[in-house]
Specification:
Layout: H1 2-30, H2 33-40, H3 46-67, H4 77-104, H5 107-114, H6 117-128, H7 137-153, H8 162-165, H9 168-190, H10 196-218, H11 227-257, H12 262-268, H13 271-284, H14 290-318
Helix pairs in contact: 1-11, 1-13, 1-14, 2-11, 3-10, 3-11, 4-5, 4-9, 4-10, 5-9, 6-9, 6-12, 7-14, 9-12, 10-11
């Protein structure tokens, strides 16, 4: 009898563990974005690229949303607010704040403050979702953040003077980190009453009006130089960018988030900077340094133990 119970418990916790690694995989796909974005930036502004990307995503997501349209009738005020945080806050405003922070603040300070995203997500998850953290979760957070630090800065100190650290750019970077962390928590909240397909579709579709307004106010001309060949290259890269680091990554992410706590998921997202380092190595021949290898090891160690922690917590609940 006990063997049957243990087998049943293992079967029920398997989706929870696989959900965590789906979040890892979905976030890792975000790291391939620069491969496509570099070509697009030669002809289009950042807001134009994001707008066109969301148009492609709208065309892909609209049929999915139509099949799940019955869920739209169940949306209440709280769900609508959460959707605005996910689509406007996480997709649009956070990206704008981070981009402006990079152009107006100290680069290293901005990158360091962006790494505070897990702290915001874990705090909000505790307040809003009432998530309880395992006993040894704190050291794993420190381990994962230390690995991310080494990936970004190596052994160096990222800023030399306090005035370069405290600035408007730093505040905008913290705002972006808070919005991204809040987006993770609100996404997890929405998955309590919606399918992951519906949440993914609404994330893209609801962001379109805001992105259209931002692009219009920017007033940059729409022009592609280089003839048919350049236009075709832009179209192909735009399509790949929208479908791989866009649609596919978010479907995997939200499917995984469906069975993963927001506090665990925000650390699973640290696979994103690791992919970026690999892309730089493979695509742009930038050697991986010793500190980055140590950072890789620390992050993967933290992810492995966090995955185990979530499975143990799920088993304790089932018992």
């Amino acid at each position: 009898m006990s063997n049957v119970t243990a087998s049943s418990s293992g079967m029920r916790t398997a989706p929870i563990r696989s959900g965590f690694w789906l979040v890892v995989l979905g976030a890792a796909l975000w790291g391939v974005d620069p491969l496509f974005r570099i070509i697009l930036l030669k002809s289009l502004t950042s807001s134009q690229i994001v707008l066109l990307e969301h148009v492609v995503l709208f065309l892909a997501a609209a049929p999915v949303l139509w099949r799940h349209r019955a869920e739209l009738k169940k949306i209440r005020l709280r769900q609508a607010g959460a959707l605005m945080v996910v689509s406007w806050g996480g997709s649009a405003v956070a990206t704008i704040l981070f981009t402006k922070a990079l152009s107006s603040g100290d680069l290293n300070a901005v990158l360091l403050l962006q790494k505070l995203q897990p702290i915001f997500a874990i705090g909000l998850a505790a307040m809003i979702l009432k998530e309880r953290l395992p006993r040894n979760f704190g050291p794993l957070i420190v381990l994962a953040l230390a690995g991310t630090y080494l990936l970004t800065f190596g052994w160096t100190v990222p800023f030399g003077h306090v005035n370069s650290f405290i600035s408007i750019g730093s505040l905008m970077a913290m705002g972006a980190a808070a919005l991204w962390g809040g987006s993770t928590v609100m996404g997890r909240y929405l998955l309590g009453s919606m399918s992951y397909e519906t949440v993914t579709s609404l994330r893209f579709i609801l962001a379109l009006p805001l992105l259209f307004t931002i692009t219009t106010l920017e007033g940059a001309p729409w022009q592609v130089n280089g003839g048919l060949g350049a236009t075709s290259a832009i179209a192909i890269n735009l399509l790949l960018q929208a479908l791989l680091p866009g649609l596919l990554s978010m479907l995997l992410y939200y499917k995984g988030l469906n069975t993963t706590k927001a506090s665990f998921a925000t650390l699973a997202e640290l696979s994103f900077p690791m992919t970026g380092i690999l892309i730089n190595w493979i695509g742009y021949h930038k050697l991986v340094t010793l500190p980055q290898l140590v950072g890789f090891a620390l992050i993967w160690t933290a992810l492995f133990f966090i995955s185990n922690q979530q499975s143990k917590q799920a088993q304790a609940v089932l018992k």
